Structure formats: structure tokens, C-alpha cells
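Let us practice reading a record.
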Amino acid sequence: MWRGVRSPRIGYCLEISRDGAGRTRRWWTPPEPERSLGDGDFVREALFDAVAARTANQKVVSADLSGGLDSTSLCFVAGRSTGTDLATLHYEAHGGRGEDLAHARRAAAALPRARHVVVPPAETPDWYAPFEHRSTTGRAP
């Protein structure tokens, strides 16, 4: 039944018409650059402004610390907010796959003022778990 089935190339999707015929088409094209790659100051400023707007007048903020570049960067920016405590959360991967936990632990060590919680795989709900599922414990990385 599944012979000849393969994933579309990156940036393409499968489009199926009403009669069941399928074709791939490009769904995303990178935008034309508006700035040079060397001019990253605007990204840093936008990131700090966005985090400051969301942490203003907050006693505690929480953030995902997956170990990836995006969440880790946001945690470090949020960790610099004065007057706001940071709590991070990391869901540990099932089967110990990937290096995310090692990166999250390294980042957590560099954020000593923050409270870090790691949810072990046994406490992580499945993708389609009922909404009532809640973790009862967490442990520091």
C-alpha cells in the first residue's frame, strides 16, 4: 500500500485535489534579505525589547528551556531582567534521544538565580493524553 510514498522536499508540501490527485508544490520561499548578515544588532534589540515588555511588573516568569538555540537565548535574556525571577522547564525526551538535556543543563548552570525543573519522561503526557494529565513532581537538572 505504501510503496513509492516519500516525504516532499524541504519547502514543499503535498497538495491533494478534490479528485484525489496529488502534486507537490513549493509552500515557502525565503524572503529577500533586507539587511546584511553582519548587522545583528537589530535582532538583539528586538529580542531584549520583546522580553522586557513581557516581564515588566512580573514577579516570576517561566520559560521553556529545551536546550535549543531559541529557548536558551530567551532564557538568558529573561534571566537578565531585574526584579523578575525566572523559572525554567525542560521536558526530558523519551528514550534519552538527543542532546537537549545536556544543553539545557549547561544553560541552567549558567543561570544560577533561576529555578530549573526537569520533567522526566514517565511524567510527560503522550501527545494525545487527556487534558487532566498533570505532572506531580519535577526535578532540577
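A brief commentary: The first strand starts at residue 12 and ends at 16.
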